[in-house]
Amino acid sequence: MRDGGAVSLPSVLSFDLDDTLWPIGPVIEAAESELWAWLCERHPRAAAAHSIESMRALRAAAAARFPERGHDMTFLRLHSLAQMLVAAGYEASAAERAFEVFYAARNRVSCYADVRPALARLGGRRPLYALSNGNASLERCGIAAFFAGHVSAQSVGAAKPDPRMFAALAARAGVAPAEILHVGDDPYADVDGARRAGAQAVWINRDGRSWPAELEPPARTITSLEEIA
Ligand SMILES: [Mg+2]
């Protein structure tokens, strides 16, 4: 626990997933390509009316239409897939098979080299939690054994930087927010979100990005998980 400005040793560590433990851009690109190839083969009429870009636009439209589900990547993808399949005369249930093609590829991630050794070391000392806005599966990504739990935007009904995410993590771990040290790549969602919720935050800046001028600078910045003592 902390009082005043003193930094206390955290009793729980939490980690963002995408772009913190693995690079997500190439994974989503590959997953969208696999899904696209599958649609072209199995549901060619739907593919003929679309492109990968227009499918992204459908998802954005779904997020605008259902703002209360905007944090739920699985819902948005399933909804927009069903929409395009039904419009081409296919069963809406085909969306679930299409989603599974995407989801299997979306979880085929390659952790940064520092991640597994650091999680193994840190997990021996304190419980580790995943705190993510995306819909990755710890089991499918092959890292579930490192973690005591996973709090996702989908399970909370809100996305970081919403303080409900950090409150849900604190409740799940049975600690006060100030006892949590959260590590993430996003200045707004991870660092500012954590400190607004009363948690401690570390910014992981793996690729030399600059910190947004309008935000108070992070208390701690690292470039690899090895730096967490
Ligand atoms: Mg991230």
Task: From the structure above, extract its key features.
229 residues; alpha/beta; Rossmann fold; Four Helix Bundle (Hemerythrin (Met), subunit A); 2 domains; six-stranded parallel sheet; 10 helices; 6 strands; disordered N terminus; binds magnesium ion
The poorly predicted ranges are: 1-6
Bound molecules: magnesium ion
Number of strands: 6
> Major beta sheet, specifics?
6 strands, parallel
Q: How large, in whole angstroms, is the Cα Rg?
A: 19 Å
Structural class: alpha/beta
What are the secondary-structure elements, in order, as H or E? Answer: EHHHHHHEHEHHEHEE
How would you describe the shape? elongated
CATH class descriptor name of the largest domain: Alpha Beta
Q: What's the domain count?
A: 2
What is the count of DSSP helices, taking H or I runs of 4+ residues? 10
The strand line-up of the biggest sheet is 3-2-1-4-5-6
> pLDDT average, as an integer?
95
* Strand percent estimate: 5-15%
The CATH architecture category of the largest domain equals 3-Layer(aba) Sandwich
Assembly state: single chain
CATH topology of the largest domain: Rossmann fold
Topology:
Layout: E1 12-15, H1 25-42, H2 44-48, H3 52-65, H4 73-87, H5 94-106, H6 115-123, E2 128-132, H7 138-141, E3 149-152, H8 153-156, H9 163-173, E4 180-184, H10 187-196, E5 200-204, E6 221-222
The structure holds magnesium ion (MG).
Describe the structure in your own words.
With 229 residues, the chain is an alpha/beta fold. It folds into two domains: 12-23 and 111-227, HAD superfamily/HAD-like (Rossmann fold, 3-Layer(aba) Sandwich); 25-106, Four Helix Bundle (Hemerythrin (Met), subunit A), CATH 1.20.120.1600. Helix content is 45%, strand content 11%. It contains ten helices and six strands, in the order E-H-H-H-H-H-H-E-H-E-H-H-E-H-E-E. It has a six-stranded parallel beta sheet with strand order 3-2-1-4-5-6, with helices on both faces. Helix 1 packs antiparallel against helix 5 (94-106). The longest helix is centred in the N-terminal third of the chain and has 18 residues, at 25-42. It starts with 11 loop residues before the first strand and ends in a 7-residue tail after the last strand. The relative contact order is 0.16. The site of magnesium ion (MG) has 7 residues, from loops. Residues 16, 18-20, 184-186 line the site of magnesium ion.
